[in-house]
Amino acid sequence: MAILENRYNEETLTIIENFIPKIKQCLHNTDFQEREDLEQEIKLKIIEKLATVDFQDAPSFWDILS
Amino acid sequence: MENQKVEEFFYRNNEQVNNPIIKSFLSDSNNLYLVQQAILYPTEHNKKLVDESFQLHYINVRKIKYVSNLIYFFSLDFDKKRRRLQNRALLILDKGLSEEGGTTAKELMEDASVGTGLDYLVGGGLLDNIEDELLLKSLQKLTVKQLQILEMIYVKELSIKDIAHTLQTTPQNISNLHRKALNKLKTTLREKEE
User: Fold this and answer.
1) pLDDT for A3-19, tens place per residue?
2) A53 contacts in chain B (CB < 8 Å)
3) Is A47 an 8 Å CB contact of chain B?
4) Which DSSP symbol is given to B102?
5) Which of A49, B35, B99, B158 has its CA 20 to 30 A from that of A60?
6) What is the pLDDT of residues B26-37, one digit of tens each?
7) What is the nearest CA distance from A55 to chain B, expressed in angstroms?
8) Whether the predicted interface score ipTM is above 0.90
């Protein structure tokens, strides 16, 4: 269980790290005083969503290709 | 023979292979190898390996897409919320004066350090307020510093102490310059009258 959790945390971390340029870019959608707040909020939201949203229903490769 | 079989398979599924998600899946050489193995040796085990790998890939892509959208829309929502809150609790100075907004109280505030009201507009200088030509001419003979001091004393009605402070010197010095200026004025006026 602990190992699984660890792997999950690492995965979340890499996703966030890979998305940092995108986050920085989206910070321009708000006032410059709010940017630090927004950055933190976005990261929190990503963590929250990755933990709660279910991504598990992938189709089978052989169903798509005959 | 082997290559032919693989090629045939891809040819048959040309449309699906061009699907972005399949394409990106096959662009990984490991995945491509697994698929080739499954085509050549279509055992349950080989097929299962492909499926597992594909599902991981698929989930990953979905996550990335999801997070990408999340960041973008969340930043927009965040700003909207911020604006709404800000408009609801405006600082008094930031509020518009009329219903339509436009000018704010902040914009109408005066800078007290700049001369006040009409004096500032009309030109409250000492020389602007002199009507007597003789006096004007004699005043023009004074030094700039003396004129400055006379203006501050008689037009702006500042105290000697204040003037000393603005000119960064001592009150005694101001007093001195003031007296000298008056004396000079007196003598030049006398000369002209004669």
Assistant:
1) 778 888 888 888 889 99
2) 66
3) no
4) E
5) A49
6) 888 888 888 888
7) 6
8) no
